[in-house]
Amino acid sequence: MSGEGAAMMIVELRDVCKEYLLGETTVHAMRHLSLAIDEGEFVVVLGPSGCGKTTLLNMVSTLDRPTSGQVFVDGEEVSAYTDSERTRFRAKKVGLVFQFYNLFPALTARENVEIGLAPVIKDAAVMRQRAEEYLRLVGLGDQVDKFPAQMSGGEQQRVAIARALAKEPRLLLADEPTGNLDAESGEMVWQLLRELNERTGTTVIAVTHQTDVARLASRIVHLRSGQLADTGQQGAVV
Amino acid sequence: MLRKTFREFRRIKLRVFASMLLISVGCATFYAMSAMMPSVRGSLHVVYDRLRLSDYTVMVDAAPVSVVDDIEGLDPVRYAYGRAHLSGLVVVGGQNVTADLLGFNATSMPTVNNISVTDGQYLDPDSPDSVLLEQRFAEEHGIGPGDNLTVTVLGRRHNFTVRGQFLSPQYVLSAVSPMAVYPTAGSLAVIVLPLETLQQLLGLPGHVNEFCVVFEDGVDREAAMSEVDDVLRDYGVRRTMKREDMFGYSFVETDLAYGDEFIGLLSGIIIAVAFFVSFSAMHRLVRTQRREIGVLRGLGYSQRSVLAGYIVAAVVFGLQSSIVGVLLAIPIAVPLSQEYMTSVSGFPLQEMVYPVTPFYIAIAIGPVATAMAMIAAAWSATHVPPHHAIRGEMVDMRPARATLVERGLGRVGWALSYPSRYVFRQTSRRRLRSALVVVAISVSMTVGATGPVIMSSVAGSFEYALTVHDNWDFVVSFSHHLLQSEVDDLDLAHAETVVPILRSGAHVAATSGESGNRSASIVALPWENSLHVPEITAGSGLGERGSILLVPRLAHQLGVEVGDTVTVFASGNSTELEVTGITSDILGDAVMRLDDARDLLGAPVASGAFVRASAGHDEELREELYRRGEVVMVQGRAETISGMRRMLEYFSDIVQVFTLLGILMTVLIVGNIVLIGSLERRSEYALMRALGFGGRTIAGVVAGETVLLTVVGILLGIPMTWVLNTWLEVQPLMQNIFPAYHVFFDWPQVVGTGVVILVTALLATVPSVRMLLRMPVHTTIRERQIG
Ligand SMILES: Nc1ncnc2c1ncn2[C@@H]1O[C@H](COP(=O)(O)OP(=O)(O)OP(=O)(O)O)[C@@H](O)[C@H]1O
Ligand SMILES: [Mg+2]
């Protein structure tokens, strides 16, 4: 895939820095990072703890702003968005999956998917149909009315993935989606993500500690101390 | 062990702080109110002592001034004072108003029933036409030093100049004319004149007609009074009055007694609220500590010792809150007492009393509430099933059922939007907390709405009494008792009916009973043809001659019931009458037939009359009445109602405390619980933001939950208000304050209270919403949730 030079660029980070102030000291979570990701890619971000993987996802999802530099998605400078523009951007274009606490305990599996659609789809029937379709896709077609408390961790993560995908986003961002799962369920989740990436063509950026996931990636990004591991190069390609 | 628990308290300091604050405010309110009552009572007694309020007052036809020395010579008498006392009329705003004229020695202040000159100067022997006017009457009518007063005494007009204003311990509360058929504010002018001036008007130089006596401490009052009576026997005793029978004195004393009951109610409410709020904080603490408690147990601590640690910590925090509250109470109590004292008596506060028993109670409220809350919380925490305890240790994963509202709406094909659905689910998922908020709000609503309901009921009861039982257009008081023939001679061109009435002071005793006699105001009516029909609450109306109706308080004091016989003493005569019914009439303490009363008094007299105008001639009749010299006061229906309302204004200050309390409770409860809920669910809110819901939606969800619970609480509070007030209606408390008390719901006011509570609740969510909107989404979302 990496050979297809004609693929459209979907995400671009230009010289992004992110600093956190921790009392007197400044933490450099990201140092002059530049990175471009093409549409349809399955990017796996690897690196030691604290190297800035989550920060990278936060920049792209607009959950956080860079201290300097720019972030573009679909050619728009999302890092310059106002709060309400960010909200709309997330609602429309980004699907998010976190390590834990992805679901609302008060809502059923189907409702947990629907609530992710609510900001973009107003028609209740369409919403319901879409939610059930994606729950079937992640293999939970028969568990739509279960509450999170009645499901296993792996099932819960699959609901979260269904929610992230149901809105048919431009980007799916997953931060250690299997960090809380046993190896077997974890493998299932990764397979699912890859499969969906291939089937729907949704661009996926996934963060993990598990180096063996690398084999699924169309591209691997190694981070170290908020920089690309092999500095100077625009994204290390396998 | 203890140190660990304290550290945990510090970790949830916001919640602990909120409950501590509530306890402190509760204790402060309680102790401030507890200090207010004895301070006002004590201050009044300081005023009574300083100005020497008479223990006994005797009115005679006339006696030389020197008789005072004979009375003062009696062993049990400490001070005696002779003065001239005469009724007259003063013209205010074109109308005659009853005046009590008191003749004092102009060279020195009275030794008994002294006055406090609040503006201007005391009498001057060299200016016989300078007089002093009672302050509250003066203020009601806007009369000050330098103004002229036209006074009618014994049918002749005299002009005086106001030299100053005064307050008298004899006329605390407000100057209300005992002559007025319905007591209204500003209906009695008390005027102090030089004794010589009044003696001249009376045509009795060197004489006085009233003796005021203060006894030595600890003497036998009854014996002392009869010694005084003996001295005055030859001068024609017309009326005697004990201190307890003085209108202002007895009213204020009973009013203060009701205040004590009110404080009891207040402290009950405060303890309940303190308990609920502490419970919510303790409950969270115990739940989050479940695992650690397990570890401690594993280390070999017994369950009891673990629990004891928590309780001791809770008690320490409760005690601190109480102490802070009591310290806070002191600066609150002073202005509160000052305000109450002046509204009740006109006099400034004389002393602050800090009562001991309420002090201990106030100190105990905090630790008792927190200890109870901790025990309840620990108990409920140990009753969580173990699998929940293990699984729910990280995340509170309790499922929620779709609420009834949701299912109902779903059935009619209306799906709730996600933010609203989330609100409903949260409230049903956290059923205990939701119930707590609803109960607390409904109590706040009940407490808050009861104030306006009591006020509207008091006002409504008057109006009700006047519409249902009364058929007059004017009620008039005569300057002196008129004979029936004089009443007939009034010959009012625009009057359709004139019904004479007689109001008189008398003593009433149970014919067979040991309870002694009571002074009472008696109202006599021609029962068959009256424009005023007293309401009967038990038994029946007046029968043939020889019957009487009593108000509940008097019946209770005398220990008599319907069917018993009482003896009425007046003007040296007595008569036995059968109690045929209990009445809630507001004209007097007892109602009897006019013919019976005339037999008792020995003359066919009337002290006033109900007058009905011929159709459409109300105003002409009013003019006509104003022009009659023998007519002292003319009260139309509207004036009567508004006058009585003004009388009760000071009462409304106390009633407003209820409303404030309701609002305060709402702020504390909603503020505290919403904040706890928001803190707990902040990752959920962050997740919503991550999913693309805007800040406004989050604010809407928090506010929506508050609105939902508050509205349910308010709706529940409305029937509760109804129940509480219908219950209060029949309580002796209300019946004693106001015999004709009926509950009248002023719905706009009740709804208004609901709106105020709702707005208050919404304002109380502002800090939580601000906190949620400021939280950084990307870090909050990753926080591990502890349910
Ligand atoms: N809100 C914050 N305040 C201060 N420092 C922060 C904050 N968020 C992240 N950091 C710091 O920025 C650096 C990068 O953090 P980041 O969360 O991106 O690491 P990561 O690669 O995701 O680590 P992990 O694998 O442990 O999740 C770390 O040193 C971290 O301590
Ligand atoms: Mg991370």
How is this fold's topology laid out?
The complex is a heterodimer of chains A (238) and B (787).
Chain A: E1 9-22, E2 25-38, E3 42-46, H1 53-61, E4 68-73, E5 76-77, H2 83-93, E6 94-97, H3 109-117, H4 124-137, H5 153-166, E7 171-175, H6 183-200, E8 203-207, E9 219-224, E10 227-228
Parallel strand pairs in A: 3-8, 3-9, 6-7, 7-8
Antiparallel strand pairs in A: 1-2, 1-4, 4-5, 9-10
Helix pairs in contact in A: 3-4, 3-5, 4-5, 5-6
Chain B: H1 2-11, H2 13-50, E1 56-64, H3 67-72, E2 77-92, E3 95-104, E4 116-120, E5 130-134, H4 135-141, E6 148-153, E7 156-167, E8 188-194, H5 195-202, E9 207-215, H6 221-232, E10 237-242, H7 247-288, H8 290-298, H9 303-345, H10 356-381, H11 386-391, H12 404-411, H13 418-429, H14 431-468, E11 474-483, H15 484-489, E12 495-510, E13 517-525, E14 536-539, E15 547-550, H16 552-558, E16 565-570, E17 573-583, E18 590-593, H17 594-601, E19 605-613, H18 618-627, E20 631-636, H19 637-647, H20 649-680, H21 682-690, H22 695-729, H23 732-737, H24 747-774, H25 777-780
Parallel strand pairs in B: 3-8, 5-7, 13-18, 15-17
Antiparallel strand pairs in B: 1-9, 1-10, 2-3, 2-6, 2-9, 4-7, 5-8, 6-7, 11-19, 11-20, 12-13, 12-16, 12-19, 14-17, 15-18, 16-17
The site of adenosine-5'-triphosphate has 12 residues of chain A, from strand 1, strand 2 and helix 1.
Bound ligands: adenosine-5'-triphosphate, magnesium ion
Radius of gyration of chain A: 18 Å
Please name the two chains that share the biggest interface, counting residues whose Cβ lies under 8 Å from a Cβ on the partner chain: A-B, 37 and 35 residues
Cα distance spanning the termini of chain A: 11 Å
Number of domains of chain A: 1
- CATH architecture heading of chain A: 3-Layer(aba) Sandwich
